[in-house]
Amino acid sequence: MRIATKTSQYVVMTLFAVAFLAPLVWMISASLRPEAQVLSVPPQFLPKDAQWDNYRQIFELIPVFLWNSVKLAGLNVIGILIVASMAGYAFARLRFAGRDIAFMVLLATSIIPGIAYLIPQYIVFRHIGWVDTQYPLWVPKVLTPVFATFLMRQSFLTVPKELEDAGKIDGASTYGIYWRIMLPQTKPALAAIGVFTFLESWNDLFGPLIYVNSENLQTLPVALAQFQGEYFTQISLLMCGATVSVVPVIAVFLFAQRYFIQGITMTGMKG
Q1: pLDDT tens by residue, 42-85
Q2: Burial level of 9, CB count in 10 A (0-12/13-18/19+)?
Q3: 139-143 long-range CB contacts below 8 Å, 24 or more apart?
Q4: Rounded distance between C-alpha atoms, residue 24 and residue 242, angstroms
Q5: Gene3D superfamilies from the entry (predicted)?
Q6: How does pLDDT run across 224-267, given as a tens digit for each residue?
Q7: Do 92 and 156 touch, CB atoms closer than 8 A?
């Protein structure tokens, strides 16, 4: 009976894996076909004659867009990790007047949909000269990491207080305790925040379309959107670009997978 149960579980998981991998396999296959064969009937998952020239064409078109996406993702990840970890440590470990009220107000801001303040934010950025620059794509996110701050606070709360007390006895400053003792204990939460932030920045299409006009400042999602027109879509090149854009996402997740899963499962709701 136990063997039958295990076998059925593996069969179900295999079917789900095949279902999730099929679109990815088709995307890679379509990226290696001539345009005329992409939508062939019946569909082919393996190209008969791989067209590697498609990738040559795509890499001639997207280097600037790719670099912009990498740069913005890096700024967002590094900035949010620094700001959220410091804010989370302050809300979790430091005692100051109005701490809990300030944290509740911070959480309350997360219920405001971004579309509600889009126009006022655009007007502010226009007046300070940030429209058609990349500042709106990372500065507001770095300065207002609500979810990341919440996650870091919960992670710092799970660290035994004895470690902090030992640092104080050894004469460590508040910053020294945060940097040398507390922060290394929250690697899973940092990894989870890093992955989430990278995905959000890497896949952001709306922000660049709103705030950026110059082509040399646009990002990879905008470049991929250019392959889709009202009357014609270059599907093979679009799939090439999509494949290129997926590779960094998979690489980041595989690199941080162990810490990422721990950060999601072990960060409790201790208050």
Answers
A1: 766 677 777 888 888 888 888 999 999 999 999 999 999 999 99
A2: exposed
A3: 141/76, 141/79, 141/80, 141/197, 141/200, 141/201, 142/75, 142/76, 142/79, 142/80, 142/83, 143/83
A4: 10
A5: MetI-like
A6: 888 776 556 778 888 898 899 998 988 888 887 777 666 655 55
A7: yes
Query: In terms of C-beta density within 10 A (0-12 exposed, 13-18 middle, 19 or more buried), how is residue 16 classed?
Result: exposed
Which residue type sits at 210?
I
